[in-house]
Amino acid sequence: MANAASGMAVHDDCKLRFVELKAKRTHRFIIYKIEEKQKQVIVEKLGEPAQGYEDFAACLPADECRYAVYDFEFLTEGNVPKSRIFFVAWSPDTSRVRSKMIYASSKDRFKRELDGIQIELQATDPTEVGLDVFKSRVN
Q1: Is the pTM value of this prediction over 0.90?
Q2: Domain extent for 53
Q3: What digits encode the pLDDT tens for the residues 100-120?
Q4: Whole-angstrom Cα distance, residue 35 to residue 27?
Q5: Buried-exposed string 84-105: b where 16+ CB fall within 10 A, e elsewhere
Q6: pLDDT, tens digit, for every residue of 12-67?
Q7: What total of structural domains would you count in the chain?
Q8: Is residue 123 part of a domain?
Q9: In CATH, what number is assigned to the domain containing residue 73?
């Protein structure tokens, strides 16, 4: 089903992989990409459970927009292990204006397809998705 605002559909694989991340913890992160020619959001990369934040950050292209989901694990002040699922709207300043517009207009509908997102981040440069930003948002 296409998004009225941007005409982007969401590939079934996007939701399926998200459910795997959320329920089975088979992925640490998922990078999503909009295929403009096919007019749909697809899964570009899956992060293995053993991969960490550096691996995730390295998958965000320097000059192209992406959506990403990251399962962030942390310890509470009482040393209790927890995790939060972050949705990242990655839109670097160096990406094309058209691309930024398409990602911005498709974001809300795409995010609604992923039931279980707990925290959202908007980022235009690597400092806005730094590990310290994730840590500050879970406390």
Answers
A1: yes
A2: 9-138
A3: 999 999 999 999 999 999 999
A4: 22
A5: ebbbbbbbbeebeeebeebbee
A6: 999 999 999 999 999 999 999 999 999 999 999 999 999 999 999 999 999 999 99
A7: 1
A8: yes
A9: 3.40.20.10
Q: Is 84 contained in some domain? A: yes
- Asked, for residue 2, whether it belongs to a domain, the answer is no
Cβ–Cβ under 8 Å, residues 71 and 85: yes
> Residue 6 — pLDDT band, cuts 50, 70, 90?
low
Sequence-ordered alpha helix ranges (H) in the chain:
12-19, 53-58, 97-113, 131-138
Q: Which long-range contacts (CB under 8 A, 24 or more apart) does 31-34 make?
A: 31/59, 31/60, 31/66, 31/67, 31/68, 32/66, 32/67, 32/68, 32/69, 32/110, 33/66, 33/67, 34/8, 34/65, 34/99, 34/102, 34/103, 34/106
4 in a domain, yes or no? Answer: no
